[in-house]
Specification:
The protein is 49% helix and 14% strand. By secondary structure, it is α/β, with parallel strands linked by helices. It has a five-stranded parallel sheet with strand order 2-3-1-4-5, with helices on both faces. α4 packs parallel to α5. The longest helix has 20 residues. The radius of gyration is 16 Å and the shape is globular.
Length: 177
């Protein structure tokens, strides 16, 4: 057994995660471009009912997210099987959600965009046309179970420039794939 497999598994795909307005989509796209990967935008796969709930300021629960997480796991697995390097933007706020995605894709890594509530509130106030209601910022932080310390997780400061975050993430991924 080589030293690499003793220490950690190879990361075949990445989830860029965090609370609303932390920059998941922008960072995931930048990572995919730098790494020669493909970006999967998790928000595009929410059901119409889930989007309506969020627009109304109602937080999603585990039941609302179940089918969505299954579909995202399948999309990641299909991309890996096709030889792609997928980068998914997905909140993945709870450890159980991350475990569900890990079950679908062994070797899944997470880039956690760490950000404080005040910065998120500033960003949400500037955002236009997004379905995530400003009223849900508190519920995002209430639901968040930090992945810091879990295996295969890179925690980065979400207030850094996009180029810096994506560079850190790609260097980390390259060292683990």
């Amino acid at each position: 057994m080589n030293r690499r497999s003793e220490q950690q598994s190879i990361i075949s795909a990445i989830v860029v995660m965090g609370v609303t307005a932390c920059g998941k989509s922008t960072i995931a796209e930048a990572i995919a471009q730098r790494a020669g990967g493909v970006h999967i935008e998790g928000d595009q796969f929410h059901s119409a009912a889930s989007i309506a709930k969020m627009r109304a300021g109602i937080a999603l629960d585990d039941a609302d997210r179940e089918a969505w997480l299954i579909e995202l796991g399948e999309l990641l697995a299909e991309a890996v099987a096709a030889g792609q390097w997928p980068v998914l933007s997905c909140s993945a706020l709870k450890r159980s959600y991350r475990e569900q995605l890990r079950a679908a894709v062994p070797g899944l890594g997470f880039v956690f965009l760490d950000i404080d509530r005040e910065e998120v509130e500033r960003r949400v106030a500037r955002r236009q046309g997004h379905f995530m209601s400003r009223d849900l910022v508190d519920s995002q932080f209430d639901t968040l179970q930090s992945p810091t310390g879990e295996p295969g997780v890179l925690t980065v400061d979400a207030t850094l420039p996009v180029a810096e975050i994506s560079c850190q993430a790609v260097v980390w991924w390259d060292a683990n794939r």
